[in-house]
């Protein structure tokens, strides 16, 4: 079995949104024609248009979330998961943590300069 190749960077976001927008415009024009013919009333037309807008908004949100999830997955591909027993070794004991701290240089070991006129 071969591994599945990672998803390409090319996004299908624009073509899908354009096709959804075209379908929404077609449904809206059909609803207007039905209202002009007297088949549906103005209140029903309003309900149909609200539902069409909600469907288009939901599709936009889902596609945007999917696009962001793909982008995040691509960024995490190089990560190495922590070992299963990480809590046994982390956080390190206090003595070990201090031993691993870098030693201060000789320039930092000097006393801080004194204030106004306290020079020896």
Order of helices and strands: HHHHH
Q: What share of the residues lie within helices?
A: 55-70%
What average pLDDT do the residues reach? 77
The tally of strands reads 0
- Percentage of residues in strands: under 5%
- Principal-axis shape: elongated
Largest sheet: none
Count of helical stretches:
5
Count of the domains = 1
Q: Looking at the chains present, what oligomeric state does this protein adopt? A: single chain
Describe the protein.
Keywords: Membrane, Transmembrane, Transmembrane helix. The chain crosses the membrane at residues 12-32, 44-63. Residues 108-120 have a biased composition (Basic and acidic residues). This protein has one domain. The chain is elongated and about 85 Å long. Helix 1 (13-36) packs antiparallel against helix 2 (42-75). It has 120 residues and is mostly helical. It has 5 helices and no strands.
State the main characteristics.
mainly alpha; 120 residues; 5 helices; single chain; elongated
Short recap of the structure:
With 120 residues, the protein is an all-alpha fold.
List the helices and strands and how they pair.
Layout lengths: L12 H24 L5 H34 L10 H4 L4 H7 L5 H4 L11
Keywords: Membrane, Transmembrane, Transmembrane helix
